[in-house]
Amino acid sequence: MILPMIKYIESAGVSIEYGQKVVNVEFDFVPASATKAAKKVARAIVVQHDGIEDRIPLTKNDQVYITNGGCVENATWGSQNTVAKVDPQIRPGGGWDMWRRIAAQAPDGSFGNPDVLCSDPEQSNWMSATVDTADPEILSAIQRICRHDPLSGRVVTGGIVTARDSRWLLSWTVNRQPQFKTQPDGHVLVWVYALFTDKGGDFIKKPMRECTGVEICEE
Ligand SMILES: Cc1cc2nc3c(=O)[nH]c(=O)nc-3n(C[C@H](O)[C@H](O)[C@H](O)COP(=O)(O)OP(=O)(O)OC[C@H]3O[C@@H](n4cnc5c(N)ncnc54)[C@H](O)[C@@H]3O)c2cc1C
Hints:
This protein is α+β, with helices and mostly antiparallel strands. 21% of the residues lie in helices and 21% in strands. It contains 6 helices and 7 strands; from the N terminus they run αβββαααβαβββα. It has helices spanning 2-11, 94-104, 115-118, 121-124, 136-146, 213-218, and strands at residues 21-30, 39-49, 52-57, 127-133, 161-162, 170-173, 188-194. Strands 4-7-6-5 form a 4-stranded antiparallel β-sheet. A 3-stranded antiparallel β-sheet has the order 1-2-3. The model has no long low-confidence stretch (mean pLDDT 94). The chain binds flavin-adenine dinucleotide. Flavin-adenine dinucleotide is lined by residues 20-22, 67, 70, 72, 94-95, 98, 128, 175, 191. Flavin-adenine dinucleotide binds at residues 20-22, 67, 70, 72, 94-95, 98, 128, 175, 191.
């Protein structure tokens, strides 16, 4: 979806600036008057690039869309045979630190409190993995559960299926296949995720955060 969208918007004259880190969006606070409700208006975007900080002033005709608080920021990666190592350090994060600076501007707390969500990774962590399979036994189990042929190119699970009794609290979903242009015929990608990454599994007796891709697949 992303590549055609980039092509489309670039051909319509949109300029995409890469390598820019938004460190803050500055707001003006307009108090309520007898006739108008209070307003918060974005005044400027503060960006860093190549070690330089710039301020992009905004007009009242500009629209600003902010992706704050991403659930994959500072993620670590594993692979088939390696574990995605948990990093116990709380490191600076682009979107979260930006949100903190934005939130600090609203004395009434109306921009939310990002620290509720990002200050204790033990409370908010999760893990995901992508399984690539052409195993007929797994494909027919998928078909039995969701009553759609996973190789039909149409909707498969239609949503996320949760294995409610799983100690890891695993869920899985299969989107329309193929997901990638280079995906071989007959292969299905299953996206799985778990919310209890610190608990031993039902089959692999280790916590998911200590598992390689192979072990996650086995679970
Ligand atoms: C493992 C995984 C698999 C998924 N699979 C699917 C799927 O198969 N199908 C599906 O429909 N959805 C899937 N999703 C969900 C989908 O990816 C997200 O819903 C979607 O990407 C959210 O888009 P977004 O633009 O809101 O945020 P994001 O894609 O998170 O984009 C936010 C962007 O902002 C950038 N950014 C953050 N802070 C700053 C800053 N301060 N300055 C500059 N840039 C900044 C980030 O680097 C990032 O590029 C999946 C998600 C995950 C994590």
